[in-house]
Amino acid sequence: MVDTEFVEALASKAPTPGGGGASAYAGALASALASMVGNLTVGKKKYADVEERMRAELVELDDTRAHLLSLIDEDARAFEPLAAAYGMPKDTDAERAAQNAALQKALVGACEVPLEIMACCLQVIESCVFVARHGSVLALSDAGAGAVLAKAALMAASLNVVINIGSMDDVERADVYRNQMEDLLAAGGAMADEVYADVVKRLS
């Protein structure tokens, strides 16, 4: 049942998948946990009052999970021009200028993909808030685990943003990306922490 292909590829010396792909994969796993809670909730008389909203959350989680899985490959594709730019010759002024121009162009995609991963992880955390509060109590711990895992994915993806904005010549663009990253971290981290604390309290 366990598909180890991605994990084995991640463990290899190949440059991709890397941290970005792992973040997207972890976010997808977090989404799956939240979906499990939702699926254990719908159809139960006890939770009839949240049935419609829970089904809507499940649809959103399915879409977000599919997008996160697609971002694994997108992250790898975004890394290709970055790696190519770093490998360009830098022996002359002209070569260095060409190399830096290629690098600056590649850095945009290398920042935007992990930011998209972070945005998806925030959506997953928001769903975890709902399923933890209104989902089946039998799966409460899974809702908490989903929030924690999504927060880890959020933080891991942010590291790809940090490393890439550090090489950007365009200070204004770098600041925009940094602000987006920090906003996503602040919002998602706070929500995930609240879910975790609430779940621990209710389980104790």
UniProtKB/TrEMBL annotation:
SUPFAM superfamilies given in the database record: Methenyltetrahydrofolate cyclohydrolase-like (SSF101262)
GO molecular function, one term: catalytic activity
InterPro entries: Cyclodeamin/CycHdrlase, Formintransfe-cycloase-like_sf
All residue ranges annotated as the Cyclodeaminase/cyclohydrolase domain in the record: 5-182
Pfam families in UniProt: FTCD_C (PF04961)
Protein's name in the database: Sugar ABC transporter substrate-binding protein
